């Protein structure tokens, strides 16, 4: 079982979204899931391509999502264009969708 974490990143301070996703990652790992964290994906992309743009991040994220069995929506995901796109793709793929309250 592999879960992809989805939530608001754009518009939040890096320390806030990093902490939110790290907390969610710890929770799901504790539940026995393998976890795909888009913050980690984004950091790796920036190392390869420091000029990466929004759509570059989304392509990497959607690619990773396709290898998952579950999608976890973090609080505030509704305010994220990327998370809404990830949710639509997860529904199209038939992934189980879960919600996680972090606060």
Notes on the structure:
- The protein has 4 helices and 4 strands, in the order βαβααβαβ.
- α4 links the parallel β3 and β4.
- The protein is globular.
- The relative contact order is 0.24.
- α3 (54-65) packs parallel to α4.
- The protein has a single domain (2-100), classed as Rossmann fold, CATH 3.40.50.10400.
- The protein is α/β, with parallel strands linked by helices.
- It has a 4-stranded parallel β-sheet, with helices on both faces.
- The two termini are 25 Å apart.
| CATH homologous superfamily heading | Hypothetical protein PA1492
Shape: globular
Q: Count the DSSP helices.
A: 4
Order of helices and strands: EHEHHEHE
Class by alpha and beta content:
alpha/beta
Q: In total, how many beta strands?
A: 4
The CATH architecture name reads 3-Layer(aba) Sandwich
Strand order of the largest sheet: 2-1-3-4
Poorly predicted segments: none
Please tell me the total number of domains. Answer: 1
Question: Gap between N and C termini, in Å?
Answer: 25 Å
Biggest β-sheet, characterized?
A: 4 strands, parallel
**Helical residue percent?**
40-55%
